[in-house]
Amino acid sequence: MNSQLLQTPIDYLKGVGPNRADLLKKELGIHTFQDLINLFPNRYLDRTRYYKIDQLQRNSSEMQIVGKITHIKTVAQKRNKRLVATFMDDTGKMELVWFRGHKWIKENLKLNVPYVIFGKVNWFNGVYSMPHPEMELLSQHEKSLRSAMQPIYPSTEKLSSSGITNKVINTLMQTLFRELKNGITESLSQPLLQSLKLMPKNKAFFNVHFPQSQEKLTRAQYRLKFEELFFIQMQLLQKKQLHKAKIKGYPFEKVGNYFNTFFKEHLPFSLTDAQKRVIKEIRNDLGSKAQMNRLLQGDVGSGKTIVAFMSMLIALDNGFQACLMAPTEILSVQHYNNLLEWCNKLNISILLLTGSTTTSKRKEIHEKLENGTLQLLVGTHALLEDKVKFKNLGLAIIDEQHRFGVAQRSKLWHKNTHPPHVLVMTATPIPRTLAMSIYGDLYISSIDELPPGRKDIKTVHRFDANRLKVFRFLKDEISKGRQVYIVYPLIQESEAMDYKDLMDGYASIEREFPKPHYQISIVHGKMKAADKDYEMDRFVKGETQIMVATTVIEVGVNVPNASVMVIESAERFGLSQLHQLRGRVGRGAEQSYCILMTSHKLSADAKTRLETMTKTNDGFEISEVDLRLRGPGDLMGTQQSGVLNLRIADIVKDSEILKIARSYAMQVIKDDPQLSQPYNAPIKNTYHQLGKYKNIWNYIS
Ligand code: ADP
Ligand code: MG
User: Fold this and answer.
1) What phi and psi, each to the nearest 5 degrees, are found at residue 694?
2) How does 181-210 read in b/e, with b if 16+ C-beta sit within 10 Å?
3) 108-122, 161-175, 190-204, 542-556: lowest mean pLDDT where?
4) What pLDDT sits at residue 25?
5) Would the CB of 682 count as within 6 Å of ligand 1?
């Protein structure tokens, strides 16, 4: 019955007419009582506090001021009219501004009578002003209840200018709570509530909207955040279990000749403990009856390639094909060359498929894939084309998975009648909390150890003005036989400009490092693949000492003799990109350097990024800073942020609650997988409701 009440259209709430209902729907997505109760305040303001006009500051936010209107005038500007009132207290004057509803305001506002005004304060042309203030006669205001924790609800320009102020929302909320009469059904179990001393749901909702004290507000927020995160975890964990139980994979029962021969006779180095552990984890997955869906994360240079290769050998040992997909042509070529060397030793057939593969070669690949004579396929997006059909694809590996969309990945998945095992690899470490929330349904392996003998890369920040010194340093390094990268930003929107920057840079580097003493390679997105390969190849072979490039070299390129990475306009790169680029050096035994060049104009965020880079080499630490700076949505790309559409919890700030929620969700599922215990009924009901809605807050009832 209660759930029905909550489903009542918002139009039926006292105080909401058709106009308001329309606005609430359009502007805030509030269609039902339930939606309204789930409109959580952005923050709380102390409404027992009043400001004087001479206390206002330029960056003030919402303020409450007592004063009188002395004057009202209409100001016409081009086609727009606005109503401007002069508002004074005993310390100064300011303006109140309305862009709409002039008539009503003009007729109803009283001059020279004390009002309490409330709203956002702007500073413009030497005057403070408050657009569309919330206003109340002081005499009335004194009778109403005020709180030191007045909730401030999300709003829009349109809402406030149409008279749906924060106060109106507050009144509607009061009406709603009177209607509901504490009838919100509990959604957590008693044992859970008790063990975490959580506030009951009714009380929590009430206190979030009408805080009785700071302490109660904190507990109310905790309870609702916990609930939100708990049910997301329940969903993810169930999904993980379901996946394991339902989606059958090819059991790769044996580890056979290919794997063993490679391991015993051809390992180019001894594996790190982390690599061994991860290979074991993958082996276990592949050997089980469920389809593998694993994320392999490991910092740049941690040695993911050999792990990928040995996993593919297991597929081959069981008579299956395998493929490796990389985001760029350069990277896939490099993977191919790497693997080719190993494959030759083992007599494994391997081919490369990219956008620039010739038609005849393509035909050969298609045929051999379908008749099964081709065992391994390496390539770019080209692998996803419909024409590419495998005879029996057993394992698909995706490198640098963050560069591919979800849709692309699932396409690879569906290449078979049976889904192949999937391993996605990333060098962009995912902060733990984020991993828990986004990939909570994936299994994660981490290579958290670099191969022995690696030295930390020394990273410095230099201003453009010091370029000559930097050049001198580069010459020193080159004279020691080292090679150098100089990277320019590439931003899609201004490709032409970036190209010009690159070419200007190239010209100045050519002047500074003249032939024949110095040889320079250049690689950028506008070049033909063959030219890129040629230039890249010269650098790999050591025929050129300097590689001038755009970020196309960001991922994966491996030239151990390169010891310096210069990043131009480093302020324009994101943290994870900087870290990736830096990872191109430090691959050999020599001390390596990363030089971040910038102008003097730096935003606060850019400064933080540069400082982080000079301070640490640890990808996980960097990813945490990145998460703080950019927020989870940006970090993961929009397509994955669905789970992160949180109403009240914040993945960054509430990571502690998230951890607790996850461990409790695990416990609940472990103790009572079917949620059949009577005490788990509230969880079960909620969970089932949840399945019906996209947003997890739509279930409450
Ligand atoms: P990434 O994880 O960035 O893909 P790679 O697989 O390209 O790293 O490995 C980086 C470099 O480290 C390569 O030159 C590789 O041969 C080397 N390498 C990988 N594992 C080891 C190891 N256990 N011992 C020594 N060198 C290793
Ligand atoms: Mg790699």
Assistant:
1) -75, -45
2) eeebbebbbeebbeebebbebbbbbbbbbb
3) 542-556
4) 94
5) no
CATH number of 48-145: 2.40.50.140
CB 569 within 8 A of CB 581: no
pTM of the full structure: 0.68
Range scoring the smallest mean pLDDT among 6-20, 116-130, 411-425: 411-425
CA of 584 from ligand 2 middle (Å) equals 10
Is residue 275 lining ligand 1, measured as CB closer than 6 Å?
Answer: yes
Q: Is 428 in the pocket of ligand 1 (CB under 6 A)?
A: no
Lowest mean pLDDT among 248-252, 362-366, 413-417: 413-417
Residue nearest to atom 20 of ligand 1 (CA): 303
Distance (Å) from CA 305 to ligand 2 centroid: 6
- Phi and psi dihedrals of 142, rounded to 5? -65, -25
Q: What percent of the chain has pLDDT over 70?
A: 90
Atom of ligand 1 nearest to the CA of 307: 6
DSSP state of 416: S
558 lines ligand 1 (CB under 6 A): yes
CATH 3.40.50.300 fits 257-447, yes or no: yes
- Structurally, at CATH architecture level, domain 458-616 sits in 3-Layer(aba) Sandwich (3.40)
Residue 298 Cβ contacting ligand 1 at under 6 Å: yes
